[in-house]
């Protein structure tokens, strides 16, 4: 119970950040700037939003509490729904931006469930890229610097992907991507789900 409680706590806190990102998008507010300002309060520590929640613990463990206590676990269930819904929101963003092209080239940056690892378990980035491929939204250039090959996607490096892309979809904040600057991508449509492109 202690282990699933720890991971449920994390999930609820990530859901708060993810829900804030949805609200800020509609209000025209930079969510990362907002969180940075709010976190100046000594008792506030809002986490960073992203494209969803992955991994074999945080995305799974809350469901054990929900399954055992469905009537009481309302907040935990809602947090799971928010986090599970975030990849669909990202996909909708890509589709909306892709409409201006006949068949855009989309550079999908990152497949793992968090930065600087090679673990793809329960990765929201994987789910997003799979759905874009399944719906034939564009020509996908998949860049994942922490794995050598993948069964579903032909991997390219960042230097190959950037010049060819119409849309840059940043899904994982790997160190290789943290040097990207908006000024260098001004001809591109950028969808930064991690808030690292300055």
Descriptive report:
- The protein has 198 residues and is α/β, with parallel strands linked by helices.
- Strands 2-1-3-4 form a 4-stranded parallel β-sheet, sandwiched between helices.
- Helix 4 crosses helix 5.
- CATH superfamily grouping of the largest domain: NAD(P)-binding Rossmann-like Domain
The main sheet orders its strands as 2-1-3-4
Report the top-level CATH class of the largest domain: Alpha Beta
How is the quaternary structure best described? single chain
Helix content: 40-55%
Shape: globular
Domains, number:
2
Give the biggest beta sheet: 4 strands, parallel
What is the fold's blueprint, element by element?
Blueprint: H1 2-27, H2 31-38, H3 62-68, H4 74-98, E1 105-109, H5 124-134, E2 139-143, H6 158-164, E3 167-170, E4 189-192
Parallel strand pairs: 1-2, 1-3, 3-4
Which descriptors apply to this entry?
4 strands; N-(1-d-carboxylethyl)-l-norvaline Dehydrogenase, domain 2; 9% strand; single chain; alpha/beta; Rossmann fold; 198 residues; 2 domains; 4-stranded parallel sheet
Outline of the structure:
This protein has 198 residues and is an alpha/beta fold. It is built from 6 helices and 4 strands.
